Fold this protein.
Amino acid sequence: MQPDKPTAGPVSGVPVGSAPWSSGLFDCFDDYGLCCMTWWCPCITFGRVAEVVDRGSTSCGDSGALYVLLSVLTGCQWIYTCTYRGKMRAEYGLSGEPCGDCCIHFWCEPCALIQEYRELAARGYDPKLGWHLNMERHAAAAPAVQHMGR
């Protein structure tokens, strides 16, 4: 006699690519310091987001400098920055579409950068620390392995 095969029950949860962002696109004024920094120096906010999204393979300074160069030379830095929004959506299953990413970054780039920064913060990262310090902080916060004793 064969054991009963498990049957698939109903699956609940959020479909891939439809999780809501932790803050709205126009919640950018909730953090005045971040808002001011991003409106006047978006290269800093972008550099911080890019370093965490790229898991330390690029630095804040390198990404920020490339942002400035693209902005000054072409005015098309939004094409570069919208790719990071796409990377975040793919990584965290966030709602949105590639065309929407580009439109958001074209029409209101500071709002998009702030939303991305806040999303990383809501997921436990502190973008101003960079990737490596965030990893050290998470490793230090990990609980020690406990063993049962007699």
User: Anything to note?
Assistant: The mean pLDDT is 87. Helices lie at 32-40, 42-53, 60-73, 77-92, 98-122, 130-141. Residues 12 and 114 are 31 Å apart (CA to CA).
